[in-house]
Amino acid sequence: MDAAIAEVEAGDVPGQGFLKVDSAMFSVGGELEGDELDISLPSPIPPPSDDADVEAAVKEAVKAVADDHGHHDEAAIDPSGPEWQAHDKHVFIFSIAGKPIYSRWGDEDKLASLFGVMQALTSFVQEDGDELEMIQAGEFRIVFQLRGPIMLVMAARTGESQTQMMMQLTYVYNQVIFILTYSQLKRIFEQQINYDLRRMLTGTEKFIDNLTEFMDRNPSFFLGAVRCLPLTAGVREKIGQVLLNCRIKDLVFGVLIADNQLISLLRPRRYSLHPEDLHLIFNLVSCSSVFSTGECYMPMCLPKFNNTGFLHAHVSYIDEACTTCLLLITNNRDAFFELKSCRSKIVQSLSSNGCLGEISKAVLHNSYSIDTMEVADLRHFLYKSKSIAQFTSPTLEAPYNLPGERERLFRRYQAVHHRIHSSARPLKIYFHNGQRETLLGWITVGFELYACFGPLVTKPAAINAVLRLIRWMKREEDGLFIQSSLVF
């Protein structure tokens, strides 16, 4: 058994077709700083003289995609009532001057006293030259994250670790940067320390709302990976060639997605698109119904690519069912008509070569069944290829097709992920036998695997099962992963 494990850890494993850093699809380690880029990025919104110009610019940029509903209904919840207190997770943002910026549940103005307490706590600790990171209050764990001029706080009784909660706060912070850019955020508070940032973010709260819900049900966030839509290698290659042949001079990224899954990505040879930036793009598309009504052109800041300036994205669905979304991202703010023409050529080519129909079939089938593997007692799994930062998993079947059970399995996966990545005592293999299921976590140089079995499965049987699973993955990897990115 140990020899079989060692062979997998040292040998050829699924999803390892892209090991070289200079040719990897995603930049997993490190960020590209703005002053290191050759791409000429548009400047951030100019500094305001009285803040009014900036407010108008940002509101104009987001009003086309931010539907004016959702957060207002949740804000009406009385913070002193049982409905507000019943929520298992809260997210708060406020400035270092104590000005409320965002609350996941309830009206920020009605929570002014709570924001004041949080600001007082952080200031008290900072006076001693320290930084407040976490408070355990009964069943609630409260984590704090200072990012420049703003403070982010998460209070949760979900059992998530401090590390996982901090990761989620980083995503919330990046969502703010996605809308404003770091340069603009910094400039605003340098000019006016007690500025009310809600004036800039009005109408965009739904993006943060959706992101927090997204992170509570999608494993791609804690895995640090993206899911690809299963397609045959031949179809995916045809799609990529269409994007490559139709690109315009100022195109920076071409991204084709469906149902929060990546279909194809076109990028410059020297630059990568980080999974965290792709997650923000998925979030944008999933919570904006306006894209189904026509073509949109909007600024967006991709924090991992360059947090100092805006890129501009032409966003549209390319099928009648509004499931397949194409984003053409450029550094030229005046390229709308060129991108519109580019989009038309892509749609025509994908329709004529049959790829659009293949995408629709793949979305309709919605992943694959666990029965496909023919592995006894295996109920579900998450498999991540570390070199290309992509993951795959089958559809959730009984007993995990019920909402409560689905959430419970998600939390169990989070717990195993935290245990195996523990900074105090990291593990290569973690086996847990519980009353309802048995969980196995396995991490190697090439992959991470989290598998769920029935409660009576033994450790040797579980390891034999995942060895069979890995052999199946190796056979199917070309359809499950994007093994090489298209570059120009």
Describe, in plain words, how this protein is organized in 3D.
- With 488 residues, the protein is an alpha+beta fold.
- 38% of the residues lie in helices and 20% in strands.
- Strand 4 (140-147) and strand 5 form a beta hairpin.
- The protein is globular.
Key descriptive features of the protein:
488 residues; alpha+beta; six-stranded mixed sheet; 17 strands; globular
Average pLDDT number? 87
Return Rg in Å: 23 Å
Portion of residues within helices:
25-40%
Unreliable spans are 17-52
Structural class comes to alpha+beta
How many extended strands?
17
Question: Topology of this protein?
Answer:
Elements lengths: L1 H9 L41 H11 L8 H5 L6 H4 L3 E7 L4 E4 L8 H16 L6 E4 L2 E8 L2 E7 L5 H19 L1 H10 L6 H4 L3 H11 L4 H4 L2 E2 L5 H14 L4 E8 L2 E7 L7 H12 L9 E5 L10 E7 L6 E7 L5 H17 L2 H11 L12 E8 L4 E3 L10 H18 L8 E5 L4 E6 L3 E7 L5 H22 L5 E2 L1
Parallel strand pairs: 6-13, 8-17
Antiparallel strand pairs: 1-2, 1-5, 3-4, 4-5, 7-8, 7-11, 9-10, 10-11, 12-13, 12-16, 14-15, 15-16
Helix pairs in contact: 6-9, 9-12, 11-13
Gist of the model:
A hairpin with a 6-residue loop joins strand 10 and strand 11 (324-330). Mean pLDDT is 87; it is low at 17-52. The protein is 38% helix and 20% strand.
